[in-house]
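Researcher: Following up on the earlier apo prediction. This time include the ligand. It's zinc ion, with the SMILES given after the sequence.
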Amino acid sequence: MVYTVRCVSCGFELYRGPEPKTVEAVAKIWGGYCPKCLSPIERRPIKIAAKLLTRPR
Ligand SMILES: [Zn+2]
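Model: Understood. Below is the ligand-bound prediction.
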């Protein structure tokens, strides 16, 4: 499984990895702001996607 956390404003991929991360942990990595659109990373749940490591058909 690959977990991704995206910015709600611009869709920038803030985190991508094999383990799920909390929004708070992801916000800490970037200093609380999205590096692309500079909007604050909110505490409430943002888009977290889990995908299987399979090739697209
Ligand atoms: Zn953003």
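Model: The chain has one domain: 2-51.
Researcher: Noted. I'll compare it with the apo version next.
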